[in-house]
Amino acid sequence: MSGLFRKKPLHVLLEEAQGDNRLRKVLGPFALTSLGVGAIIGTGIFVLTGIAAHDKAGPALILSFAIAGLACIFAALCYAEFAAMVPVAGSAYTYAYATLGELFAWIIGWDLILEYAVASATVAHGWSHYFQDFIGIFGLHVPPLLARSPFDFHFETGLLTWTGSFLDLPAVVIAAFVTFVLVIGIRESAGINTVMVAIKLVIVLFVIIVGAFYITPKNWIPFAPYGYAGISFFGKTIFGQSGAGGAPIGMVAGAATIFFAYIGFDSISTHAEEAKNPQKDVPIGIITSLVLCTVLYIAVAAVLTGMVPYNKINIDAPVSDAFKQVGLPWAQFLISLGALTGITSVLLVLMLSQPRVLLAMARDGLIPQSFFGAIHDKFRTPWKSTILTGIFVGLLAAFLPLRILAELVNIGTLLAFLMVCSAVLIMRKMHPEAARPFRAPLVPFTPIAGIVLCVLLMFSLPEENWLRLIVWLLIGIIIYFLYGRKHSVLRQQPETDNL
Q1: How far is residue 496's CA from residue 395's CA, in Å, rounded to a whole number?
Q2: Can you tell me the distance from the alpha carbon of 418 to that of 75, in angstroms, rounded to the nearest whole number?
Q3: Which domains does the chain have, with CATH numbers?
Q4: Do the beta carbons of residue 36 and residue 289 sit within 8 Å?
Q5: Model-level pTM greater than 0.85?
Q6: I need a labelling partner for 247 at 20 to 30 A (CA). Which of 188, 288, 297, 485 fits?
Q7: How many beta carbons lie within 10 A of that of residue 378, not counting itself?
């Protein structure tokens, strides 16, 4: 049993970072920051603001973004410390392996698979809604049978209903397109992402500046129609109001719902192996992208809830529809185009990140290395796992509704952040002498604050999210004992000093 908690020595991780068969080091601080902004700004602004404002927080969504951003800042500082110490693929999975042991590393790696795959499917859904909104301007429509997932979740009743559609075809198409781009190579993917980031930043600034002239202050009253709380314990509301099915609602519950919007910064750490100077560039990319995007999120939330009453916000395409409601239908074209570009870049970065987590797990023997560890001879990308990721994302996006996907990914993300904050505390104790090119400030306060806020937000999610997470982790543990434990590279090596 002691082998289950055997840690991967720090010196082994550092040796691996210099080994053969590594990914290309082509990303500088600008490209990494661009990847972060590319992953963060998109679905959070263009899609989830509608769900969170309409169902959870009302105008208090402004504070929801601030609280979620604060939790992310603490986690981001911990991510930056680890990414600078151990610049290899794998992100939180790798950090857990070095501090908590193999079993915990597997759990967090399996959790990251859920996070990135379901997040990608959520983004693909958002892209589909805006694509249909965009072509609708020209009088074009996707056939109803292929326009959305076959099921939908109604917040008012808490029930799943049949939509009359067979699958969400646009979501499948965008997932396939992004998969093709990612197989070609990281340099090309990063270049395409940078162009898309520039376009969507212009559109976001347009939304903030132009939308500010159409704010009606009375739309902010009441500011918190669902209250300022929304804290629950395993789905049972203990502080604040309850909505459909007993799910918590309120400002904190809104923060838990839109937390998904911030997951982009941690994807930067999965690309540490491809950074030219990871010790310096990765922390810059993580912190810069997070701070910039938090400010923009708060501004857009203020404008959106000021333009349209919270209960009249369209949950599928909230920003473009808000401009339509205030008599600016011409802006619908610009915003829908910017949203399509922005959401595409989010999908690109998320689907870029997942194969790198799979690659790290494959190198450790926990999943089949011949498949998940395969690097394309020409493109130097994990092409097999990238294609598998594209298929999985396409299937989820085709058949599951947006509301279920959005909440499912949040609890996985929060668990990953909690583990990284814990790992910083453990590594500071285990290896105080280790070189830390970037040090998270105010330790132990910073990681402890991150842990407390992540736990608070996890408890603010509906009960079914915990059930889905537990089922997913149980499946993962079964796979670990049937395959990963037997093929672990670390377990086949003699015990060594973990220095």
Answers
A1: 43
A2: 8
A3: 2-492 (1.20.1740.10)
A4: yes
A5: no
A6: 297
A7: 8
